[in-house]
């Protein structure tokens, strides 16, 4: 029996059909693929490995660990946007129907470790915390730029999630405009606020922390939840418990890194070394009026099942596990692992 849920923020529809996992398939199996790169801490042809610094543009920042660096931030050698001054941005109006403007902004790479085979599942918590601190520090610097309105932090892990290089890295793109999906979230939040006079994210947290049906993990400052209508199997959100629309105002980076670290390790105990997309949604600088009803958050999207014609053609996703069941599985598998270690 299928069930259709509606995302309370965006209004996006998600179909839940448990029978989908029973479909026969003779296509490539991700889990069966051998990871060649996992064997090596250093690769001579990798631009992000320790000792190959001349293969990247000059670094913007680094975090050192003794004589060597731990984390580097460099300009993307193949940026999605042109690095230009705001004064040079020109909106070109060719007609009332067709309009375009120059693509300018910033595009940077965070090299998350000097070790080629590091990932979120095998790096220690101290290193992960330093990485999150570096992300927050750089985010604050980029968003100060007068020509930047929104900063997109994201990570693609493994080829199925869009990664082109194996070495652990994530990216930041600074935009002078507001992305469409951020607008949809803000519009959905504003609509909810106009009726209830409360932030929908705060209300979601209040319900999840009370009922605990979809609460995966919490610490003093953050909660990890399975959203009510997730696009992907085992999708997780990480949100500050206090109402905070701007990521650049976050001061609890240790608690944030703890929540993200625990979320990834709980997923790992259930899914193994899985492909995923991690991204941050925060309030753009120009949308100050959205303060009362928007709430910054991270989303983790496991890419263990691909989007096909129906999802791409309609925008409606199909999920084969309810978030309540996913929550139970994540908690039980993680607890079982702790018991075994004990």
UniProtKB/TrEMBL annotation:
Coiled coil: none annotated. Keywords: Nucleotidyltransferase, Transferase. InterPro entries: ADP-glucose_phosphorylase, DUF4921, GalP_UDPtransf1, HIT-like_sf. It holds the Pfam family DUF4921. The keyword Transport does not apply. It is an enzyme of class 2 (transferase). This is UDPglucose--hexose-1-phosphate uridylyltransferase. It comes from Acetoanaerobium pronyense.
